[in-house]
């Protein structure tokens, strides 16, 4: 049976993606990767698939995630579909969407959420909680730590309700078709973006490296894990 090859968190990161190293493609640059991800996501059925999955998250653990929050930043939140779903379910939450200027500039203002054009590697708009959904598996361990460190700067202390909500793929060691599909996706992530699929131990190491004190895996919904991560 195929197995995943784990890359230690402290190991040196490759200089660009496999495609870039072989062909000299510019796709390995951080800015280009985020732009490409945003373009593909916004222009394909991936967006509707991702948002339909979030409705399952709201149904299964929305109360535990969002009840009592006053403000939320959706990091790399695209056209705001996820943020609007949060506001519809929890009207007391003031939601901000952060994404690239070329994404935000094409989204009409709706008065429901606030849109901010920016770079998640440089700063994240402050809020009581930050949501980052199906983003981190596109990035290397080193870049995940940098992104999460910016998310941590944007939130208050745990005592004040501060947390980062991470929704992403969590692989396990079980066999079968699902595991084989996870392995294939792992290879695709490594080749195209330097990202990878991670198990819970991998995520725990990244959270710690980014400066967080604790986390809870609230729910596993298929391949997706729902984490509360605390400063």
UniProtKB/TrEMBL annotation:
GO molecular function: O-methyltransferase activity
Database matches in InterPro entries: COMT-like (IPR016461), COMT_C (IPR001077), SAM-dependent_MTases_sf (IPR029063)
Gene Ontology BP annotations: methylation
Span of domain O-methyltransferase C-terminal: 62-213
Keyword Transferase: yes
Keywords: Methyltransferase, S-adenosyl-L-methionine, Transferase
Domain of life: Eukaryota
Pfam families per the UniProt record, alphabetical: Methyltransf_2
PROSITE patterns xref list: SAM_OMT_II (PS51683)
Name this protein carries in UniProt: O-methyltransferase C-terminal domain-containing protein
Source organism: Triticum turgidum subsp. durum
